[in-house]
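Example record

The entry below shows one chain as it appears in the dataset: sequence first, then structure tokens.
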Amino acid sequence: MGLDTTHGCWNGPYSSFSVFRTLIAASMGFDLSEMEGFCARGKKWSELPESDIYILLNHSDCDGEISTNETVKLLDAMVDHRDKFINFKGTARNRNGVHCVSQFMIQHYDAWISGLKRAIKLDEKVEFF
């Protein structure tokens, strides 16, 4: 059992999705586990520099959708951040351990970009299930 999305953005274990989002956050300079929605009394998203990647980072990991309007914003943000993500040399810690950006995570990042492009082309939302 794991997380699936439409348009091929993600198909895999919840634990890998958690690592994926944790690494994106770390590559942006913050700890996802300290954010509102990830811990009691977490830091508010509005306290961070503005980024449309938060559409993905602050989304439920098991259901819901990313609207057609949000897919365009998220795609632009992910494309803009890709080089920083793939060149991130630090580590990120979550409940599953300490992680670094691997080829596996880069493939998932690129799958999101491809999936968002498909959703935009079809004028469809990305659904999580």
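Notes for this example: The chain is about 45% helix and 10% strand. The chain has a mean pLDDT of 95.
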